[in-house]
Each structure stands twice: as C-alpha cells, then as structure tokens.
Amino acid sequence: MAQHLIDVETIGVLTSGGDSPGMNAAVRAVVRTASRSNINVFGIRHGYFGLINEEIDKLDTHSVSNIIQRGGTMLKTARSEEFRTKEGRTKAAENLKKYNMDALVVIGGDGTFAGAHKLSEEHDINVVGIPATIDNDIIGTDETIGYDSALNTALDAIDKIRDTADAHERMFLVEVMGRDTGFIALETSIASGAEIALLPEELTHVDEVKKQLQTMLKEQRRSSLVVVAEGDETGGAIKLAERIKDDFSQYDMRVCILGHIQRGGAPTARDRVLASRLGASAVKVLREGHTDVMVGVVNNSIKITPMRVAISKKKEIDHTLVELAKLLR
Ligand code: F6P
C-alpha cells in the first residue's frame, strides 16, 4: 500500500558539534533528496549559533556538488552556548518560522540531538537527527557517520608509529580521541595489534598495566604500543607516561597524541554510503510524518529511533571485543 506523505514545503539543514568526515555527504543527500521532491532547502551555517543569528542561505542541488569526498562540513559547525538557554531556543524557533521552514534536519552527535529534542518539545518544531560523530557513541545505529573514517585515520597513524617503535625498540603510548567512549581505542588496538588498550568504560589500574608490560618484556618483545583513549581515567597518555616511565627506562618511552587529525580527511567509502543513506532517509521520514526522531542503520536496514531514546544513554562498547583484544595481544 502506498504510504501517505505529508506536505513538506521547506526544510532547514545544519551540522553541529564536533565535525566528522561524511557530514558533507549527508548534507548533499538531504539537499538532493529534498530538491527532487520539490522541497526547498535552507542551509544554516555554524549549527544552532547560525540558526539564532540568521546565517541562513538557500541551497539547491548544485550547491552541494563536489563535496561528497571532502572532510569537514561546508555548513561549518559550532557549539552554541546560547542555544542551551530557553531564550536562545526561542530565537532559533522564531527564525525557523520567519523562513517558513516546516522542519529541521540536524546532523551531529548527542549534544546536537538534545538541542533538537528541546526545540521540538518547547516550540513544536519538526526535527529529524542524523547521527554523525567520530565517537560512535549514539544508540539506534550500528555506526555513526565519521567513525569508520576516524578509525582508519587513527589506524594508519598507529601503523606508522609501530614502524618507528620497532626500529628503535621503544614503547609508545598513543592517545586517541574518545572523551567518554572507547570505540576508537578498542578497534584500533585490535586492528593494529597493540599490546594494551585503555578505555573510559573500564577501570584502569596502573599497577596492573605495569605488570602486563613487565610480562611482555619477559616475553622478549622489543617494542610495544599502548593505545589510550583520551577519556581513560588515568587522564590520558601524558599522565600515564609520567606514572610508568621510570619502570620501563630500557624502552625509551615516547608519547604521541593523535588529536584532531582523526576528525579530518576524506570520508571512507563506507562513511559516504552511510551518510548518503541517512541523508535521504531523513527527508523520507519527515515526509512520512515522523518528528523528534533520529534515523540510523541497524543490521543494514534504516531504523527510526525517538530522539528522547537516542539521548537517554550512550552506546556501549562490545565487551567480547575487549576480550578479543586481550586474547590476541
Ligand atoms: O566530536 C567528538 C570529539 O572529537 C571527542 O572525541 C573529543 O573529545 C572532542 O570532540 C574534542 O572536541 P573539540 O574539537 O572541541 O576540542
């Protein structure tokens, strides 16, 4: 039976919070899908900040040409303090009405979604979220846009560090992003064959880390890699190094913080496809009358999750992968 579609004439799209590779592909998919259904699209620059301050431009299919392969976001992004206030959200809602936008598509992480949910609750604005963050910490989708790209960027860097660690027979503590979640740390450690991974989700006992490294020394390992998520309770790679370096002076320890390099660069094919699917789906679900929801891909199918559920908790890491990392090190 054909689905009854509601009338959507004009929508807005923005990217907000930390950028992630593939955001551009998502913007492109939203704009092209909407345009092909004769829906007008406004691009809002600098996220919610731009919505409050009227940084709003018309977009058409040509405006989003030649961006699918680019990292960053053509719409720019920001973290807006004003939008956290009721007054800020009221201004944002007024601007949406001023431009006759029937709905808003927000591309970002949990902070972005929490803002959209409030906008929907307080001002009855139709919103749909597209999950995009390198942290991969959103429930309701197997992966977030940008995670696969960041993972591969970090892995490429860690492989290079392994070469020099091996050449000098050194120990490296490599810090990867993940303030609250250890997805990047866990999967890069498995993929790079790192000796140890330290994650925010697990208690880190520094004495235990030292013991494990001592055992590996006894196994005649000439170099070693410890991947540390920035949110690990030790406080990150620099702090950990201060606490263990004297015990491993024979390893001539070095620290490397990968930092924002993980957020940039061309999105992987997988992220471009995911972003394209989610961008097109966001417009489709709006036309089907859904609001205050996010779209995700679960088991290769599009899944719609209420925004209040999506922001209610962080996605958990897979503990079988934690065990696998330990087994194979
Ligand atoms: O977007 C998520 C993230 O990359 C986190 O992993 C990291 O802790 C944070 O953003 C860094 O944010 P900023 O760019 O504001 O320093």
Helix content: 40-55%
Q: Which CATH-level-2 architecture of the largest domain?
A: 3-Layer(aba) Sandwich
CATH class of the largest domain: Alpha Beta
What general outline do the C-alpha atoms trace? Answer: elongated
Measured between the Cα atoms of the first and last residue, the distance is 54 Å
In terms of DSSP E residues, the strand content is: 15-25%
Radius of gyration, Cα only, in angstroms? 22 Å
CATH topology of the largest domain: Rossmann fold
User: Helix and strand succession?
Assistant: EHEHEHEHEHEHEHEHEHEEHH
Quantity of strands, as a count = 11
The neighbouring-strand order within the major sheet is: 3-2-1-4-5-10-11
In the residues, how many domains can be counted?
2
Bound molecules: 6-O-phosphono-beta-D-fructofuranose
User: Count of helical segments?
Assistant: 11
Spans of at least 5 consecutive residues whose pLDDT stays below 50 are: none
Largest sheet at a glance? 7 strands, mixed
Judged by helices, strands and strand pairing, the structural class is alpha/beta
Mean pLDDT: 96
